[in-house]
Amino acid sequence: MGKRILRYFLRFLLWLLVTLVLVAGALYSVIYRCCNGPSAAAKATFVTTFKETGQLKFVPNLVMSKAEIQKIVDANKMGEMNTEIDSTLIKINHDDGPDIDDPTQPKKKNEVFDENGIRIEEVAGRTFFGKMMIIKDPSQVIVGTTYPWGDLGKDLDKIVEGVGGVAGVNGGLYQSDNNKGGKPYGVVVSRGQIQYNSPSQRGLYLIGFNEDDLLVIKDIQGMKADDVKKYVEEARIRDAVTFQEEASDANNHFVPLVINGEGRELKGQGSGSNPRTAIGQRADGAILLFVTDGRGAGGHLGATASDLISVMLDYGAVNAANLDGGSSSAMYYNGNYEMTSVTFYYQHASWRLPDAMVVLPKSN
Predict the structure, then answer these.
(1) How many CB atoms lie within 10 A of CB 267?
(2) Which end of the chain offers a freer environment for a tag, N or C, measured as fewer CB atoms within 10 Å?
(3) At CA 260, angle to CA 254 and CA 263, rounded to 5?
(4) How far, CA to CA in Å, does 62 sit from each of 20, 26, 55?
């Protein structure tokens, strides 16, 4: 009896080993064909998409040299965008009356907001599905955090509800290894208080709001902690996180999307296709929070930099920036997840996060 069980067990192990070898071989074949097939566009999408991931950056290296990969990355990134934001282009309407009519901006369709001045619309693209959250009053959008920092962050819904919010999306750059999510990177400002100040990563941008409720997208590359503190005080920054502008074969991150109503220029495809989270502000001050799926969720690859720019411009963004994306991308609203992590184990929640863009309820 014992020998029979052992024989069956060994047969099962052999079957499992053969299956794994066949699957690995099939995957390698697919990867090889993507990287060495006739389609240059498919090759570029494959490389740039994988190079933006947190855990699978190594995949293109299985069938391509570093030089080949770097050549594709350099040919498919975003052009420089160093234009300073013109704050006069934003005229915030804080009351409940009609929006200020700005003849320089495209006419908006009739919008119906809920009791907290929030509206959500579905956005479908060729390779992604997403949702756009529009918040009429920018003063309601803050940065919620898990401060004081610990080893573990919190799900998006816990951060939102922990600060009394009703909605939110994931925020800035953070340590995401093993989904711990307890430590942010760069700089975090919440309600005027600097809660984290270690701008050591290259290419950092500060993304948030000043006390006039204007969206700030500020290049802080090269700033030390004291420089950041001085800037936050002088620019009257009330809430902000950081994300990274870094186009190498290691990261492929990007930040500015639209500045002063002009979309950023792209080289090649601009980026790979991945889940995304982005923030923007219209001429009337309304905030745009956009989250997409990707990495196979719903059969979609995800959104490219070009997609984000097009969507933000379509929704009237005067200024817009990319936030942290990938498996971190999530949107929460009124007790439910509108968009959840694309990671299999977290399809009905978010990854653990140290901070988030949170929408507070409308004050009476």
Answers:
(1) 12
(2) C
(3) 45
(4) 18, 14, 14
Please list, residue by residue across 302-338, b when 16 or more beta carbons sit within 10 angstroms of its beta carbon and e when fewer do: bbbbbbbbebbbebbbbbbbbbbbbbbbbbbbeeebb
Compute the distance between CA of residue 60 and CA of residue 36 in angstroms, rounded to an integer: 11
Summarised one tens digit per residue, pLDDT across range 64-114 is 888 888 888 888 878 889 899 999 999 997 665 544 444 444 445 578 999
Amino acid at 132: M
Q: Which residues on neighbouring strands pair with residue 274, listed in sequence order? A: 303
What is the rounded distance in angstroms from the CA atom of residue 69 to the CA atom of residue 145?
A: 37
Q: If residue 36 lies in a helix (H) or strand (E), which one and from where to where?
A: helix 2-36
DSSP 8-state symbol, 78: B
pLDDT band for position 194 (cuts 50, 70, 90): very high
- Beta carbons of 240 and 210 less than 8 angstroms apart: no
Q: Which long-range contacts (CB under 8 A, 24 or more apart) does 333-339 make?
A: 333/118, 333/120, 333/133, 333/166, 333/167, 334/114, 334/166, 334/167, 335/157, 337/156, 337/157, 338/120, 338/131, 338/133, 338/291, 339/130, 339/131, 339/291, 339/292, 339/293
Annotated domain spans of the chain: 2-75, 87-359
Please state whether the peptide bond connecting residue 106 to the residue before it is cis, i.e. omega within 30 degrees of 0: no
The neighbour count for residue 112, using CB atoms within 10 Å, is 5
pLDDT tens profile 240-290: 999 999 877 777 789 999 999 999 998 877 888 999 999 999 999 999 999
Give the CA distances from residue 54 to residues 63, 119, 221, 232, 236, in Å, rounded to whole numbers and listed in that order.
19, 32, 22, 30, 34
Q: What number of CA atoms fall less than 13 Å from residue 237's CA on the CB side?
A: 26
By CB atoms closer than 10 A (0-12, 13-18, 19+), residue 108 is middle
Residue 43 CA: distances (Å) to CA of 33, 59, 195, 199: 9, 13, 42, 34
